[in-house]
């Protein structure tokens, strides 16, 4: 074969290869061109989904921000003259506004006072009889009597019966005073400081109210009794049992409110507990009843009992105050699987 024939054969081979390559790559390019818009269209909803989800999640947040927050309301109650506080020329117990107080006052008026008066009169009469009948002038010869069985039996049995009459209602009253609080009762922790009180509400967010005595001038301006008025009262609901827990932060104090028949020591390192029940709304005053230092006489107590709805409104005015059972924590979201 000549050189020219060889060149022509190689040219035909190159042309054949070029046509085959053009047909192959051209077909692939034509097949790939329509797929791009489809992929783009498929990707569009995926990209739009997070935006839609974001807008849906943002809607409740905006609604929550726009919803009004109930911050509660509170106007201190005006005290009633003669109720829950000492009165001029008073010589007996204050009027009682708790069931325990009514029971204790009944025992004092119906049982103790009659027995005390009867024994006092009997002893006075016996003393006058002895003075008149057995003096030296009326009875110059002294009696030689050494024993009298009847008298000895009487003066032994009568005191025993008197003690039994006193003991039965007394033990019943003590037992009622220290009955445990029912389940679900509101708890107030009372802390005695030198020299003021602190009231903590663990069932309503755990906030603490610090209570200090008002000056004489401020108390008179507020229409409250001097040395008993405070800047912040212990506010509680009326008509339901309240669990009072006392503790001292430094020395022994005593939380005492006479018109509620309530007294409980506040001892450092120890929590004492007792139930308080206030029958009706009002303001009730008391004082620390344990000598606790130089300003012992300047840490009064003011308890304000409100209806339940007004008490809850007061709770909402306190920093961190909550009403009702605490909301259950939301379960944690499961971790996303690793890509």
TrEMBL record:
Keyword Electron transport: yes
InterPro entries, per database record: CcO_II, CcO_II-like_C, CcO_II_C, Copper_CuA, Cupredoxin, Cyt_c_oxidase_su2, Cyt_c_oxidase_su2_TM_dom, Cyt_c_oxidase_su2_TM_sf
Coiled coil: none
Record keywords: Copper, Electron transport, Membrane, Metal-binding, Respiratory chain, Signal, Translocase, Transmembrane, Transmembrane helix, Transport
Position of the signal peptide: 1-31
Highest taxon of source: Bacteria
Similarity comment text for this entry: Belongs to the cytochrome c oxidase subunit 2 family.
Top-level EC class as recorded in UniProt: translocase
Species annotation: Novosphingobium jiangmenense
Lipid bilayer topology: Multi-pass membrane protein
Main subcellular location of this protein, as a coarse class: membrane
Catalytic activity reported: 4 Fe(II)-[cytochrome c] + O2 + 8 H(+)(in) = 4 Fe(III)-[cytochrome c] + 2 H2O + 4 H(+)(out)
Protein name as it appears in the record: Cytochrome c oxidase subunit 2
Cofactor binding comment, as recorded: Binds a copper A center.
């Amino acid at each position: 074969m000549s050189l020219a024939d060889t060149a022509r054969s190689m040219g035909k081979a190159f042309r054949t290869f070029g046509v085959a390559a053009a047909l192959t790559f051209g077909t692939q390019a034509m097949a790939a061109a329509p797929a791009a818009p489809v992929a783009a269209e498929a990707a569009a909803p995926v990209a739009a989904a997070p935006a839609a989800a974001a807008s849906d999640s943002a809607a409740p947040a905006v609604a929550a921000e726009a919803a009004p927050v109930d911050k509660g309301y509170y106007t201190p109650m005006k005290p009633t003259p003669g109720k829950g506080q000492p009165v001029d020329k008073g010589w007996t117990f204050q009027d009682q506004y708790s069931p325990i107080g009514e029971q204790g006052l009944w025992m004092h008026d119906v049982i103790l006072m009659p027995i005390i008066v009867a024994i006092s009169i009997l002893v006075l009469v016996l003393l006058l009889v002895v003075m008149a009948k057995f003096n030296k002038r009326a009875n110059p010869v002294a009696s030689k009597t050494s024993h009298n069985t009847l008298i000895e039996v009487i003066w032994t049995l009568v005191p025993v019966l008197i003690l039994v009459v006193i003991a039965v209602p007394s033990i019943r009253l003590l037992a009622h005073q220290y009955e445990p609080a029912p389940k679900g009762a509101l708890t107030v922790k009372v802390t005695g400081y030198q020299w003021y009180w602190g009231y903590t509400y663990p069932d309503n967010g755990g906030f603490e109210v610090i209570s200090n005595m008002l000056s004489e001038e401020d108390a008179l301006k507020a229409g409250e009794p001097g040395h008993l008025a405070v800047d912040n009262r212990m506010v509680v609901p009326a008509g339901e049992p309240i669990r009072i827990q006392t503790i001292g932060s430094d020395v022994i104090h005593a939380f005492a409110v006479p018109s509620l028949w309530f007294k409980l020591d506040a001892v450092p390192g120890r929590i004492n507990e007792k139930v308080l029940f206030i029958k009706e709304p009002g303001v009730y005053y008391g004082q620390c009843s344990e000598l606790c230092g130089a300003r012992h006489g300047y840490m009064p107590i003011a308890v304000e009992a409100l209806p339940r709805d007004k008490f809850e409104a007061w709770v909402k005015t306190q920093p961190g105050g909550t009403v009702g059972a605490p909301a259950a924590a939301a379960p944690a979201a499961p971790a996303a699987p690793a890509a």
